[in-house]
Amino acid sequence: MTYLPGDVTQLLHDLNKGDRVAQDRLIPVVYKELRQIAGRYLRKESPDHSLQPTALVNEVYLRLVKVRDVDWHSRSHFFAVSATLMRRILVDHARANYAAKRGAGISAMLLDDNLAPMPVRPPEIVALDAALTAFEKLDPEKARIVEMRFFGGFTELEIAEHLNISERTVKRHWRIAKAWLYDELNAHA
């Protein structure tokens, strides 16, 4: 049986009901989009980064199959969790590779509106992750928007669709989040 991208939610509901065959059917359906998200994340990394999109997707998949008690709500929920896992994997990778330099050499960062792909050094990724984690405690929805926009390269329209909010709300939250993160990152630069 061939599944379409719209079938992701149904496969996730089947998975929630304990249908392990749904898990095997899910990956071929979501793989292309996961790889696109991984590619967006990795465009922010330095050119010599050792992870490739396929490896990042595989790592996400390995982490997802270990989790048994997730109540998947929808396709958007699945991709949001996957994007968060990608961010955590990249931050863990940066920490492992630059543990000796932790905190050293962090430059002031600007969260660019057009988000043209530009390499970000691992100490900056770690600093942004720490700031974003702190911000997440204050405002989870705005932090999610930053994660999807900066790390994932999602457009405002894509974010609005994933979070089921208006594009105007995404723009407003993005402006507020950028200002908070800019202050936070530059305070420690």
Automatic annotation (TrEMBL):
Gene3D superfamilies hit by this protein: Winged helix-like DNA-binding domain superfamily/Winged helix DNA-binding domain
GO biological process: one example: DNA-templated transcription initiation
GO molecular function annotation: sigma factor activity
Pfam family, one: Sigma70_ECF
Every RNA polymerase sigma-70 ECF-like HTH domain range: 6-186
Keywords, in A-Z order: Sigma factor, Transcription, Transcription regulation
Entry protein name: RNA polymerase, sigma subunit, ECF family
Native source species: Granulicella rosea
